[in-house]
Input
Amino acid sequence: MNIEPYRQTLTKYWGFTSFKPLQEQIILSVAEGKDTLGLMPTGGGKSITFQVPAMAHDGICLVVTPLIALMKEQVGRLNSLEIKSAAVFSGMTREEIDITLENCIYGDYKFLYVSPERIATPAFQAKAKRLNLSLVAIDEAHCISQWGYDFRPSYLKIASLRDIIDEKVPFLALTASATPQVIEDIMTRLAFRGRNVLKTSFKRKNILYLVRNIEDKPKYLLSTLNKVNGSGIIYVRSRKKSKEIAEMLVGNGLSADFYHAGLTPELRDKKQAAWSSGETRVIVSTNAFGMGIDKADVRFVIHWDIPDCIESYFQETGRAGRDDKPSYAVLLFSGSDKSRLTDTIRHRFPPVEKIKDIYEALCNFLQVPIGSGKDSVYDFNMSDFVSKFRLPVTETYNSLLFLQKEGYLEFTEEINNPSRVHFIAGRDDLYKFQVANEAFDSFIKLLLRSYTGMFTEFVPINEESLSKKSALSRDTIYQYLVRLSNQNIIRYIPGKKTPLVIFTEERLDRKSLVISPDNYRLVKEKYVLRLNKMIEYAEMNNRCRSVILLDYFGEESDRCGVCDVCRERNELDLSKYEFDLILEEIKALLSSENPDAEELVKKIDYPEDKVIKVIRWLLDHNKINRGDDYKLTWKN
Output
């Protein structure tokens, strides 16, 4: 198939003249109508793989993603390119959703973004039958697998689309990180019509991975940042710590700021823009920072706290060095970190009866009667909830996440829905109203000058911006909007910044709320397994860091030669070839006999000084044992 039409589309809308590695293969695979799983590293340009073919073909592309903020950002970017796009997600009113879907059915829209929990609702499924779909793209596809690190039951509903759309419409599943087990699970659960995996190597040759076992992290951080150049990210686990560390850095003369999901969207945007432009050198953040980052010259990513799985760590370190220049990924690790991390298991998995207590308290808090609530969306203030029922915050949060894993509800932690306006009066009726109500005339003109498309859809507005343009107070703007809404000239939905709870099933009584002990145990075991793999990475001092990471994702690789483990081996003044040959001979000999060091040196046909160096290294790194009788044995 000819790639040229797709390259022309890429240049026309995005200004690029060539594709990044793998983008071209994925686009051609999808264009041939094949279900495709694309594994692309963070920053690899996943969105291009569905946006370009969708623009090159008739019909609309359905994009499923759990990240509402990313959904809004991509829809805004596409619309700025004059590519008509829309989104449907929890937090929208039924009227908004209905209008949006009708516009996608009858208008010349090219992209419809939808959150996974909306897929299975009767309203969406009824409309989806009438959409002229060209492609279904599933972002963050690892969420469909119970073996993945961010399993969401709502993803399991995506395959139901197969029953209501044209069978020729291909599925494109995309993720930045997946183990071999997760890869197979994705294709099975999305009912792929054939095994089709396209991926690039996970290897990042320009990233130097380091683990530093230190107790005095502030001292190390200050010393390092004063020695290295360029901008970077420091990841921490708590909002409080992000602020404390940023203030510590600023207090020591470094350009730094903090970032977390609890900040207002406006402030988050401001902080991210200052860092992206280079005005701020270092951003200290929780894992909320990363989505939509396209800064190529990030020279270092430092983890102050160890993440709880390799997938998260690999994705976050992948934000360094996207310009292919040498960059650092540093993990700070100490004995106390290990005990704290293992202690999270207890907090992460509250007792089953406690999870049921929190479910009942939540239903009572939201006033959801038994037998109702399915597909209902509720504003949810976590602080008010835990205060009213005197609940521990961590236990409550993790109970909600477990109820989400069991498929009873969806918990959206952060959401920012701006105010929206839709004119329901036709243009003729609106003109008559303006003539008859002179007091509203200038305000209506202000609205229509400031925003477009309000006659066909709900359009986000900003009362603060309207206030500045008109010299009217924000409250006056609000009163105008409310009065116009009351007179059925517009529909006005005031903005909200409240997290949401979506009941994906009706409220059950306590006896009917089934949390399978086997499932509970399985989820816990998988979490502990991922946790232990992360700890193993941090503690390992005899295996290349890059090799460990790539092996986790099922990829074979030679050692990188530049990580802290490889550098220590390099100091032996041996080539990799020499070291590996001597090591293999030692391993073969010790598998059949147990000589002492002196005997071992004599049995190996290499210069004595080099064999001794390798033996010392193996002893130092606990690869071989020396008994009380000085006999050597190989440790498996």
In short: The chain has 26 helices and 21 strands. Residues 419 and 495 are 4 Å apart (CA to CA). The two ends are 50 Å apart (CA to CA). The longest strand covers residues 207-213.
